[in-house]
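Thread: "does anyone have the structure for this chain?"

Original post by V.I.:
We have the sequence but no experimental structure in hand. Need at least a predicted one for the grant figures.
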Amino acid sequence: MHEVLNKERVSAMMKKARIPVLVSALLITLVATALAQTTVTQTVMYEVQAINEIGLNTPLTLVINTAKAGALPNAATDDTTTYSITTNETGKKITAKIDSAMPAGLILKVRLDPPAQAGVSAGEVTLATTPQDVVTGIGPVTASKIKILYTLSAMGAVSPTSGARSVTFTLMDE
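Reply from O.Q.:
Generated one for you, tokens below.
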């Protein structure tokens, strides 16, 4: 009888011992599965190309219509026009030119304010059919609503006339 009790005890102990062994085997399998992960790497190529854009707002009209007796006519000015600029490069400038010469005795000038901390204004520049530097030393910048001043002056007695000139601004390398 003692032998039967021992067999029952041994059997019960083995049943109890199987549970921790099974739990340990399960944990080892889970850890091994977790360690068997896969990693892949992808190369992402990128490129930022040169961006050089300039834009203007609305057209304008300059009218010379007053003078003091014995003096040249008063110049007509307008500073309501603005420009916008975006460039991600250094060493840029803005040039300006008109499409055809002004009539005799009339001078059209332009002054562009530079973008804040990104250029130097050439001041008032007389427009001609060849490009004139109006802002130099432009570096990377994004700016808008930058003032433009136009001045139309008569250099003597100019007969009444009217017309239009296209002013071309170019953002380019210095």
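V.I.: this helps a lot. The longest helix spans residues 2-35.
O.Q.: and DSSP finds one helix and nine strands in the chain.
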